Known about the structure:
alpha/beta, eight-stranded mixed beta sheet, 17% strand, 31 strands, eight-stranded parallel beta barrel
Amino acid sequence: MVRYVYDFTEGGRDQADLLGGKGANLAEMTRLGLPVPPGFTVTTEACRAFLATGTEPDGLTHEITGHLTALEQAAGRRLGQPDDPLLLSVRSGARFSMPGMMETILDIGLNDDSVLGLAKVSGNERFAWDSYRRLVQMFGSTVMGVDGALFEHAIADLKRTRGAVNDLGLDAADLAGLVVTYKELVRRETGEDFPQSPDEQLRRAVLAVFESWNGERARLYRRREHIADDLGTAVNVQTMVFGNLGADSGSGVAFTRDPATGRPGLYGDYLANAQGEDVVAGIRNTVPLTALEELDPVSYGQLRAHMRVLESHYRDLCDIEFTIERGRLWMLQTRVGKRTAEAAFAIAAELADEELISPDEGLARVSGEGLARLMFPRFDTSAVGEALAHGLPASPGAAVGAAVFDSAEAVRRAAAGEKVVLVRQETTPDDLPGMIAAQAVLTSRGGKTSHAAVVARGMGRVCVCGAEEITVDAEARRFTVGGTTVEEGTVISVDGSRGAVYAGAAPLVDSAVMRYFETGRRSAGLVESVARAMERADGARRLEVRANADTPEDAARARRFGAQGVGLCRTEHMFLGERRKLVEAMILARDESGREKALGALLPLQREDFTGILAAMDGLPVTIRLIDPPLHEFLPDRTELAVRIAAAEARGAVPDPHDIELLEAVSRMHEENPMLGLRGVRLGLVVPGLVAMQVRAIAEAVVERIRAGGSPKAEIMVPLVGAVEELRIEREEVERVLAEVSEESGVPVHCPVGTMIELPRAALTAGRIAEEAEFFSFGTNDLTQTTWGFSRDDVEAAFFSAYLDKGIFATSPFETLDRDGVGRLVRIAVDEGRATRPDLKIGVCGEHGGDPDSVHFFHAAGLDYVSCSPFRVPVARLEAGRAALPEAGTSDSR
């Protein structure tokens, strides 16, 4: 029989798949002897069984009852006991942290009778009624489906009537009346009464947490964070401890290191006379955790000791929730904390220095995605003047956008291509779509552990919280600060690294990390942490990292960034600008002589380009792809030409003969689907002299570099091959031209000849193609298009957003490689190609070469190198190193 419930004394942190992250860590803290309120966990298996059938799994109620009975016996109180009630919290706890995305219900067990007993036994009538109103509010919205805004409006109206600034301004009588109002609201909205049975409250709360796994905000968060939909959530049922019992009580969130910068120390927020939800919700501004030392030095000392134990045990930054109940400290939760990219690199380096983790574990705890964030520009603070306002630097970075005041408006404007900043008093889980859409989040309330801060850090969004100088008027869609009013749509700049907000668009400068990659100069702090991670990655990785570069300048930059060659040099990019006229002349040539004249004019220009790139990459391989796109792309637009000719005729003028000639050529070459038409290797087979010109330019550039004392390593790549016969014919021409240049110059020229694998047929016949190819390079952009049967340029705007929303795509297949389809073709081609030619060099030159997840796939598939844009080279280097690490010992701080 399947077991669905485990006591906190029975589990451990290695059981996160079964007990969820929160349940596993509660069990671990219990095992360590820390003061954890007792309780039990309902497993993820129970959730999956419930979601599959819509009913409680057999035996679940019996198991919960048994564990509850044991809990009651240990406490000496019963759930909801009228004179001295045992109260429970019911919290979600998935395998991966999903802050605020699922449901929590506190104070289970209160009813019209037990609230009186709680008031008497606690000696605090206000506390009892405050707890009861919280239960009705949470249970009503979470379990019974009442719009949460109705409860908020009711309490806001009461505070206005009483002239109260916040909840603490309401007395016991006010809160008792609010309970009546809330219960009437529940009855009106649902047609049923708030349940008085504690057992019914517990049962329904557990099922509501299960159901929240498939709530809209939870599903959106999982898509954003690439968390599987079939994991389910555990439910943690725990004895309530109360931080809202008075000035000697409170709740807080703490980090063993600063989650924004990684600096060691005690960081977090504390709120006296409050339950834990108040801290993260940002409904009252917290005080820094260090203030607790004066408020309650004993609890502060105990907390510091517990935090040292946890960081040493978990060997990582720990995120901790705690409550102090009348001077007694309770540990409610711990987890490996979310952190910014800056903090991730700093913490990994420091923990390695402290020998808590190995250098490999340090590398496993940073990511290419985080490194990319650190390479983004920062504000030039010397040029921005005075800040509009200051708050807490909750998530670093620099963002500029139009101020908007609700999630829906953020989504609407972002969908239209506008950059926005979401401005709120405080965010709630319902604001998640707007936070995803926005460039930055700005709140007037809350601390570094508020919902806005935690979620923004996890997503890499810029965030400033607790900007108290700002008064947000969401209804009027504006905020004021001092004598300045900022209306919706006004552009502001948010500096999440310094906690500052500026009017207008602040100028940007390169980040320190980008300057390090440009110059190689190291400095203390973040740059040193990044440099150490890169050294470890370069030492660990098997994959080479090359760059896609079409100019000497790009090649030189890529080499500074650590590229080990050029994996893709697109020769057609050299035909743009003024050279386009020469391509036009080649296309319009009426005989072989005219075509040869045009190609002859292009030859020295291409040779010069290749010479510069080979010089920039001297000693390193440069893979040069022969011309790939259809020739009509180098001609003017057909409609534009037709309109120009028609306009001239309408004026009674004679159309330009050149326009007429161009229109005839464009019409002659027009294809309904040019992506699948006369391009790639087909051009070389159909247009005489084109391949010969390009190969001669490459060969002569090689000769020039050798004569200059260089060590050029040019490789010639034939694009869009679908049949080995195509490659065989083109290779014969390539080798003929190489032999001619060798004979003419007296300098032996050898350039390996390979092909791009970018068609499904090429992947499926790779064994035969390898007979003629000395190397393969996967063109995964085209391979994705031809495998899926859609054009990237057309479909991304047409239906990708709908596919992402419906979960058909977890992410765009053009951003992260489709492992099941395109990836399978890659594996087939690798296996069959090397079966024919064991020493076959294989790489990838689509932009997937710089995508962190895709780099891991290419490592596992046995490729020799990845190639990507110059600015993504550091990211690819880091991920190639991480891909080479053994799985054991890695940390998941998602």
